[in-house]
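Handout for the seminar on molecular recognition.
Each group receives one record of this type.
Step one: identify the two inputs.
Step two: read the structure output and locate the region that could contact pyridoxal-5'-phosphate.
Step three: write two sentences on what you found, then compare them with the reference statements printed after the record.
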Amino acid sequence: MLNIFDPYAEAVSEYKQQQRLRQLRQIRTLPQGRILVDGIELVNFASNDYLGLSQHPKLKKRAIEFIEKYGVGSPSSRLLSGNLECYETIENKLAALKGTETALILASGFQTNSTVLAALGQKGMLLGSDRLNHNSIIQGLISSQSAWFRYKHNDTGDLDSKLSKKTVNHYSCKWIISESVFSMDGDIADLDGLRNTASHYGAGLYIDEAHATGVLGKNGMGLTAQNKLADISMGTFGKGLGSFGSYVACSHIIRDFLINRCPGLIYSTALPPSVLGAIDSALDLIPTMENERSRLLTNAMDLRNRIKTLGFDCADSDTQIIPIVIGKEETALSLSRSLEKQGFYVPAIRPPTVPEGTARVRISLTLDQTKEQLSALIEALKSWHEKKD
Ligand SMILES: Cc1ncc(COP(=O)(O)O)c(C=O)c1O
């Protein structure tokens, strides 16, 4: 008789054979862009804490103040007794920064995409999603009641040709879904093109600003801030804003609808007060960090140019996320291991996280790495490149 664990043991063994077994490593974050990985000190190129806010004294201070005032946990979901008074202030602040009627805070970006899209996508509707959108978006599509399709990455021509099919008129409502900064390629969506296509077909535009929030756009609040390009945008507080959680910036109608229909909001405990304190403080700081953003993006441009000069492929990266696309999984692993031996933590990203044949190492640049560390990384890449040839 089949042991209940056999299918899982088989899957794990298959991953091992294919050298695709993911494993958790023991991490401790150290100052100055460094990290301890399984006890070994490396320069960290795998952090989304782009502005270093997770260690900022002002965020820590307000997190502690909120703990003192409200305690360490929330008593329930927001709809029961978890909607602490501070939510209103923070959501108003957020909406003002995004230039939207209102905003709604949820527990994580994954929860937001996977459950907001599930709620928005009703029967008889159609959802069109960029082929490289994050897995949380895909989970939202799968859980929705809508029909859905994927269009070629950042290709409004392909999107248009899919939407121009006659049968599309049968759908009562359409949504186009894209990231503004793509998480694995670091390229930027053609937001004007998406807006035009959406308007042409009477569709709504839903934009994921997870990797743009804090870094790009008006006051660092993402590429849809203050410009009405998106009908709904979401973003996370767990990357550029240094703590945890997620938001939806939207109209009053969408907010009311989500409060009534979004399972991630209704059936999950509200964020802990410490996190709300950190979010509140980050929203005060972010608009004042124009110089830091400019330094981060200049460093990213310089680093990308130097990597390209070595003959590597950085896809269409135009941001602080810089992939080095290698192709074969074994080669991407070999590069990542070689960099690790030389003192740099730059994980390999392989299928199914990225499409087959596009395995890569992915550099996440933050304000923490020094010029010397960046130059040393270039030398390490050069050394691997020369040995490989
Ligand atoms: C594009 C994108 N959207 C959503 C998420 C999920 O956000 P969170 O980490 O807050 O769950 C991520 C996380 O990596 C992401 O890259």
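Reference statements: Residues 56-287 form a domain with the Aspartate Aminotransferase; domain 2 fold (CATH 3.40.640.10). The radius of gyration is 22 Å.
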